[in-house]
């Protein structure tokens, strides 16, 4: 499109005229080098995050069932027991709704927010939180890469 419009791109150090084959090639070269640089930087960031996860030094936010102890997340045993019961009930019934009913009618434990009544969203968040199964997610909003604490990438 830049060739068709006879655009000349001016930078502080040069001008690229897209009608000249050498300038067009130079522009493509700059774009490819920038692409490679971005991917190398991304790989370094990913490697650093995976390394911190492997060493269990990645600063993750706490969640229901876990608490911070120094640099690490460790089980909050009373909450972890509720999480185990949630998973067990879900595996037994296959229904988040039945899990919610169980929590509200039989277990009678407060929600993570301290309320008396569990709702479907809270149950879903616990069942889908990878931290509670020993995994971490980063970039969830853009790519959702999932890695195990042993450093292996998960599908």
Task: Give a description of the structure.
The protein has 155 residues and is α+β, with helices and mostly antiparallel strands. Helix content is 46%, strand content 15%. The chain has four helices and seven strands. It has helices spanning 21-54, 77-93, 96-107, 120-128; strands at 8-10, 15-17, 66-69, 72-75, 135-138, 145-148, 153-154. The chain has a three-stranded antiparallel sheet, with helices on one face. The chain has a two-stranded antiparallel ribbon with strand order 1-2. The protein has a two-stranded antiparallel sheet with strand order 3-4. α2 crosses α3 (96-107). It is elongated. It starts with 7 loop residues before the first strand and ends with a strand. The mean pLDDT is 83.
What tags apply to this protein structure?
alpha+beta; 155 residues; 46% helix; two-stranded antiparallel sheet; 3-stranded antiparallel beta sheet; 4 helices
Total number of helical segments? 4
- Distance between the terminal alpha carbons, to the nearest Å? 38 Å
Main beta-sheet annotation:
3 strands, antiparallel
Radius of gyration: 25 Å
What percent strand?
15-25%
Specify the structural class. Answer: alpha+beta
Range of helix content = 40-55%
Biggest β-sheet: strands ordered side by side in the sheet:
5-6-7
- SSE topology string: EEHEEHHHEEE
């Amino acid at each position: 499109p830049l060739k068709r419009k006879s655009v000349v791109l001016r930078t502080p150090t040069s001008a690229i005229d897209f009608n000249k084959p050498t300038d067009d090639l130079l522009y493509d070269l700059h774009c490819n080098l920038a692409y490679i640089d971005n991917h190398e930087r991304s790989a370094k960031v990913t490697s650093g995050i995976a390394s911190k996860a492997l060493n269990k030094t990645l600063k993750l936010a706490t969640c229901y069932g876990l608490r911070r102890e120094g640099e690490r997340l460790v089980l909050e045993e009373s909450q972890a027991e509720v999480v185990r019961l949630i998973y067990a009930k879900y595996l037994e019934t296959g229904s988040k709704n039945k899990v919610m009913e169980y929590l509200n009618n039989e277990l009678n434990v407060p929600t993570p927010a301290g309320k008396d009544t569990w709702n479907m969203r809270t149950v879903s968040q616990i069942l889908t939180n990878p931290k509670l199964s020993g995994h971490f997610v980063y970039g969830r909003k853009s790519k959702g890469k999932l890695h195990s604490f042993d450093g292996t990438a998960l599908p």
